[in-house]
Design a protein that fits this description.
The structure holds 2 protein chains of 2 kinds. Chain A is mostly beta strands. Chain A is 0% helix and 56% strand. In chain A, strands 2, 4, 5, 9, 10 and 11 form a 6-stranded mixed sheet that branches. In chain A, strands 1-3-8-7-6 form a 5-stranded antiparallel sheet, with no helix packed on it. The radius of gyration of chain A is 14 Å and the shape is globular. The mean pLDDT of chain A is 92. By secondary structure, chain B is mostly beta strands. In chain B, the strands form 2 sheets. In chain B, strands 2, 4, 5, 6, 9, 10 and 11 form a 7-stranded mixed sheet that branches. In chain B, a hairpin with a 2-residue loop joins strand 5 and strand 6. The radius of gyration of chain B is 13 Å and the shape is globular. The model of chain B has no long low-confidence stretch (mean pLDDT 93). Classes of the chains: A mainly beta, B mainly beta.
C-alpha cells in the first residue's frame, strides 16, 4: 500500500527561525512528489518535484527530492507569522496515476 | 475566473438525511476529485473522475455517490448521512491526466452530522 509519512506532525518556532519539514514515501513507479500549503481553507500548490537533487525555490521556501532515500524536505528560511499553516506532501498512487495520496501534514506555528 | 467553487460552505444534517455537495470548475479541467479531511488523518480521496461520464472510487468511497454529466460539475451525494461523515470536504480539479499538473482546490464544505 502506498504511504506518505510527514514529520514532525507539529512544530512551533519563533519568527526568523529556519525550519525543515520532512516527507518520506513508499510508492511503486514513482512519478512526482507535491507540496501544498493549507492555511484556513483550500490547500494551495507550492512545488512539484520529479528529479533527485534539483532544488525548487520560491522566495524563502525551497524543496528538494532524494529518490534513492525516498524522501523530500521543505525548507523555510527567516520564517514569518504568515508561514503558519499546515504543509501537506503528496505522491501519485501506484494504483493509478489518477490518485494522489497525501501525508497527514505538518502543522507549523510561527510566533512573533 | 472563479476556479473551483463549492457549495454550501457549511451544512448540518441529521443522521439518515441525504444531501448533495456541489462542485463546479470553470477551468475546463478533465480531472475532478473529492477529498475529505479529518483531524490527524490528512486528506483522503473519496471519488474521482477523469472526464465526463467516467468516475472511479478512491480510498474511502463507502457512503458516497458521484456522477459526472458535464466537464464543469462533479457533485458528491450522501444518501444516508452518518456521524462518521462529519468532516471537511474538498473538491479539487486539474488539467490533463497523470499528475504533471497540480490540483486546484475549492474552499471546502464543513459538514456536521448529528
Amino acid at each position: 500500500e502506498d504511504k506518505v509519512v510527514q514529520s514532525p506532525l507539529s512544530l512551533v518556532v519563533h519568527e526568523g527561525d529556519t525550519v525543515t519539514l520532512n516527507c518520506s514515501y513508499e510508492v511503486t513507479n514513482f512519478r512526482s512528489l507535491l507540496w501544498y500549503k493549507q492555511e484556513k481553507k483550500a490547500p494551495t500548490f507550492l512545488f512539484m518535484l520529479t528529479s533527485s537533487g534539483i532544488e525548487k525555490k520560491s522566495g524563502r521556501l525551497s524543496s528538494i527530492l532524494d529518490k534513492k532515500e525516498l524522501f523530500s524536505i521543505l525548507n523555510i528560511t527567516a520564517t514569518q507569522t504568515g508561514d503558519s499553516a499546515i504543509y501537506l506532501c503528496a505522491v501519485p498512487s501506484q494504483g493509478g496515476s489518477e490518485k494522489l495520496v497525501f501525508g497527514k501534514g505538518t502543522k507549523l506555528t510561527v510566533n512573533p | 475566473n472563479a476556479g473551483v467553487t463549492q457549495t454550501p460552505k457549511f451544512q448540518v444534517l441529521k443522521t439518515g438525511q441525504s444531501m448533495t455537495l456541489q462542485c463546479a470548475q470553470d477551468m475546463n479541467h478533465e480531472y475532478m476529485s473529492w477529498y475529505r479531511q479529518d483531524p490527524g488523518m490528512g486528506l483522503r480521496l473519496i471519488h474521482y473522475s477523469v472526464g465526463a461520464g467516467i468516475t472511479d472510487q478512491g480510498e474511502v468511497p463507502n457512503g458516497y455517490n458521484v456522477s459526472r454529466s458535464t466537464t464543469e460539475d462533479f457533485p458528491l451525494r450522501l444518501l444516508s448521512a452518518a456521524p462518521s461523515q462529519t468532516s471537511v470536504y474538498f473538491c479539487a480539479s486539474r488539467w490533463g491526466r497523470g499528475f504533471n499538473s497540480p490540483l486546484h482546490f475549492g474552499n471546502g464544505t464543513r459538514l456536521t452530522v448529528t
